[in-house]
Design brief:
The chain is mainly alpha-helical. The protein has one domain. Helices cover 82% and strands 0% of the residues. It is built from six helices and no strands. It starts with a helix and ends with a helix.
Length: 121
């Protein structure tokens, strides 16, 4: 999802040129990474004592489902204004398959996508 978010962020801001596309990718990636990062740095100190409560453990299942739904909904909303071209769909499907079925790490896929985008355009 992180790679897909950066890709969609770049595509949604591509009308503003290369700088806009890069800024869109960075902003999308930050929007995905920062909440989790803040939780790791600030909640980890007292997380073990929080996990002892049944309500906290039960709420984690709902939070996980809601966050997955929000990410999917935002991906769909950001993908709608894009052109319905074979290249856009192929890039999305190939990126997903690389992430899901290979051991290639996300940063390498992002860098490859950036280089490919610069070469194709």
């Amino acid at each position: 999802m992180f790679s897909f978010s950066a890709y969609i962020g770049a595509l949604s801001a591509r009308d503003d040129g290369l700088g806009g596309a890069i800024l869109g990718a960075i902003m999308s990636a930050l929007g995905i990474f920062l909440p989790g990062t803040f939780l790791i740095f600030f909640v980890i100190r007292f997380w073990s004592s929080l996990k002892k409560y049944r309500g906290v453990r039960a709420s984690l299942e709902g939070i996980t489902a809601a966050s997955a739904g929000l990410v999917a909904a935002s991906a769909i909303i950001l993908f709608q204004p894009l052109d319905n071209t074979i290249l856009n769909f192929a890039t999305t499907i190939i990126t997903f398959c690389l992430l899901a079925f290979t051991r290639i790490q996300s940063p390498y896929i992002i860098i490859a996508g950036l280089i490919l985008g610069l070469v194709i355009k």
